[in-house]
Amino acid sequence: MRPPIVVGTVVVAALIAACQTPAADLTEQDRAALEQVIEDVTSTLLAGDHETWVGLFAEDAVIYSPNAPAVKGREVLRSWVATFPPIQDLAFLEVEIWGQGDYAYAMSDYRFSVEGSPLDTGKQLWVFHRAEGSSWEIMVLSYSSDLPVPELQD
Known about the structure:
By secondary structure, the chain is of the alpha+beta class. The chain has helices at residues 2-18, 28-47, 50-54, 74-82; strands spanning 57-64, 71-72, 87-100, 103-114, 120-130, 136-145. The chain has one domain (23-145): Nuclear Transport Factor 2, Chain: A (Roll), CATH 3.10.450.
């Protein structure tokens, strides 16, 4: 009779799942390392050090920016950031970090301006992954401007 075998298998699977150790919350060391990555994003962009900036991202990282297609992978990130005019101001405000195990997340507001453009403010969401060697890298960055969408020109 098969039902007892199925029930037994389900019970054993449930017991195994219940015995799994949940991922540990982030340590203070993890939080400090993640805060450093975010600070490094700021300092490298302000310095125009695009190569170091790109190195903060995972090989298959993705950036979702407003009113534009996704930017996927380090090579595309490298080309994308090279088109930026000089950055005059960049700050991440009210950063909140949380996570478990090898994944972490951050939310923040931002302030950003480049030469020849008005100040932009907005909000963003970061997804991080602990890479080999215990360093953290950015997997996904999604940001959204608080400015109104520019009107379309006919």
